[in-house]
């Protein structure tokens, strides 16, 4: 029976898969209910609202991303850590476009506090320790990395780099080299 075994975790996993297949914006209670061949009302016994469902996908996705980045960072420091972090980030966004979109969702403070968002932020700051930045420069550098990685991923996914003879992977490598140079020579305030 399709109804058997509905749990919040199964529902969120199905919503995450749907997000990767059809886009995060396509995640709705009706679409997920159709996957389980149940009525929308059946989901509300496990997930209170669409916002809670999408937040669940975001929390799941942040954990997956943090796990992949953490595994890539193991034993690395400085330039190598920057490259490993960036490549894991880009690979996750490429393999899981809907989940990646969910990671950009603004979570309620109590949800964010218990999610992997804090772990992800700590890993970003950890790779910056190799560049000996103090506050407020470290915060500015975190924002630079996020803006660069996120912007590149969005442009690449949207076909923004499809024209031209140079591959986006070659440009990505040069961008990472430029970030390393920038972080190594951070201008003093």
From TrEMBL:
Superkingdom per UniProt: Bacteria
Transmembrane segments: none
Pfam families according to UniProt: TetR_C_33 (PF13305), TetR_N (PF00440)
SUPFAM superfamilies, A to Z: Homeodomain-like, Tetracyclin repressor-like, C-terminal domain
DNA-binding region, residue intervals: 28-47
Gene3D superfamilies: Homeodomain-like, Tetracycline Repressor, domain 2
InterPro entries: Homeodomain-like_sf, HTH-type_TetR-like_transc_reg, HTH_TetR, MT1864/Rv1816-like_C, Tet_transcr_reg_TetR-rel_C_sf
UniProtKB keywords: DNA-binding, Transcription, Transcription regulation
A GO MF term: transcription cis-regulatory region binding
The keyword Transcription regulation appears for this protein: yes
Location of the HTH tetR-type domain: 5-65
Matches recorded under PANTHER family: HTH-TYPE TRANSCRIPTIONAL REGULATOR RUTR, TRANSCRIPTIONAL REGULATORY PROTEIN
Protein name (Swiss-Prot/TrEMBL): AcrR family transcriptional regulator
């Amino acid at each position: 029976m399709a109804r058997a075994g509905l749990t919040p975790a199964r529902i969120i996993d199905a919503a995450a898969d749907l997000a990767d297949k059809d886009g995060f914006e396509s995640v709705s209670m009706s679409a997920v209910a159709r996957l389980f061949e149940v009525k929308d009302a059946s989901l509300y016994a496990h997930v209170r609202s669409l916002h809670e469902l999408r937040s669940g996908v975001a929390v799941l996705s942040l954990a997956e991303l943090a796990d992949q980045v953490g595994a890539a960072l193991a034993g690395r420091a400085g330039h190598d850590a920057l490259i490993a972090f960036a490549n894991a980030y880009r690979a996750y966004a490429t393999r899981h476009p809907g989940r990646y979109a969910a990671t950009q969702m603004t979570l309620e403070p109590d949800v964010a506090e218990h999610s992997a968002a804090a772990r992800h932020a700590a890993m970003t700051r950890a790779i910056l320790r190799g560049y000996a930045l103090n506050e407020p420069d470290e915060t500015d550098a975190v924002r630079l990395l996020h803006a660069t990685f996120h912007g590149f991923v969005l442009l690449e996914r949207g076909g923004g780099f499809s024209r031209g003879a140079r591959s986006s992977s070659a440009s990505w490598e040069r961008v990472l080299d430029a970030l390393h140079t920038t972080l190594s020579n951070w201008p003093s305030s």
